[in-house]
UniProtKB/TrEMBL annotation:
Protein name, UniProt field: Unnamed protein product
Keywords: Membrane, Transmembrane, Transmembrane helix, Transport
Main subcellular location: membrane
Chain ranges passing through the membrane: 108-124, 153-182, 232-251, 338-361, 381-399, 406-425, 437-453, 465-487, 493-515
Residue ranges of every copy of the Major facilitator superfamily (MFS) profile domain listed in the record: 64-519
PANTHER family reported in the protein's UniProt record: MAJOR FACILITATOR SUPERFAMILY (MFS) PROFILE DOMAIN-CONTAINING PROTEIN, SYNAPTIC VESICLE GLYCOPROTEIN 2
Protein's cellular compartments: Membrane
Any Pfam family hit: MFS_1
GO function term, MF aspect, one: transmembrane transporter activity
Amino acid sequence: MSDIIEKKITQTSVDEVNSSSSLEKGLAPQISVKDLSATEGNDPALSKKIFLINDALDEIGFTWYHAKLFGIAGFGYSVDSQMEMIQSAVKTYVNYQFGVQYPIHTEIFYAALIVGSIVFGFGSDIIGRKLCFNSSLLLSAVFGLFTGGTSSYAMYCIFLFLSTTCAGGNIATDVSVFLEYLPSKYHYLNTSMAAWWGVGQTIANLISWAFSSKFCSDPDNCTSKLNRGWRYCWYVNSAIVLVAGLIRLFVLKLDETPKFLISVGKDEEAYEAIMKISRKYNRPCSLTLEQLKECGDIKEEYYNYSKHGASISALWKVTKANIKILFSTKVVTRSTTLILLSWLFIGVAYSTFYNFLYIYISEHGGSTGSSIYITYRNSSIANFVGIFGPFLAGLLVMVPRLGRRGTMAVSAVASMAVLFGYTTVRTPAGDAGFSSATYFFINAYYACLYAYTPEVFPTRARTTGVGLALVACRVSGAFAPVIYWFGEESGSSVPIWVCGALIGCLAILAVLMPFEPSKQRSV
């Protein structure tokens, strides 16, 4: 049996490498031309097992379980964007309510996103995907309901932080869970799943529009009785998230992903998770537990947190080991660095551009919204159109000459062109058109980047890598209000042009990325 496995998953003579010499040079042995095994560092046993798991998933194919997972995991995108839109829509009226001069809760919101990315992103590689996946939406919804009912600014900030922490960490797990169950033929769906981001933005926009008449218009006379709108926004949004969280628990009933189980040495449980899907949907699966066992033992390197005493020291060692995996070889280091730079650029550029955009238009004689109706109408149209950007990206990634990297490059250049064109807008109609085009192309880019990030990170440190990427995005995004404030004071329009150029630079970073998942299976 061992000989059969070796013949099945080793390269042809042209692609074969000597494993021992590769390890001495710090290079990953190329176990399979079909898999991105180079990302797994120097653990050939893990690469072989992942290869077998990928074969089993491909043999089973797409099932109703994957369809449910597309919707329920995809809603994590929706929640992430809903939280950002709701917080942004009500922040002015929260300031009126509590007499706040400087909106510190905006910075608290970004801090919570960063903490959530770390806690849930790193945690999913340590304790597993299942617990983080099932708990994040429920906790976010409960804390969100409390946020809407707070009677002081201090309590508002506390519950906003808790709710946003859970929502912000949720997306790092969702995208990884869906990828680790998905047959390679359908990996384009991991890109299209980002359409839920636009769904969330549209939902949040419609909620705030529905209760806009309940917002207080006079900051000097803004009692709770006259300013119920922001509370209703939190209640309705949190109720929607709560329903999604309950569906995860009682409808999907997610099992731990086979790839995570393999990466922590639990071959039996990984095998059973695969066979459970095979039996339930009556799909063939030729994988055997003996095949997994005969691949050998994977390198431990503190992969099992509880085995080392479940202490803070052990937690730190596991986390450090996972981060080390992301920089294990030269090619993996290059990949990780370019991904983090992409998230850093898009975080600061997109947030700052939109903060400055309307100031720039106003200073040049334009008017993009003469009433609440026009403002919300244009925003709803733009967010709805943005839903379809990821669908286009999902189609483009299947074009052989484009793939993931080409689609990101095209989307980034298109976004830059539209954003620069946006600066010429002087009317509400122009605002509606250009904002729709912006959301369409920027969501197409985001869709590719969100999908590409977990696809090229190694299994053992996948959500750690996604968490770090989100941290880079959110740390840079947190500087947007500061840049906005200084730019507004100085009257300079330089930031808007620099940020637009940074978005264009994303195309260069995409072309330089070393891996192309459309040509190989993710590990």
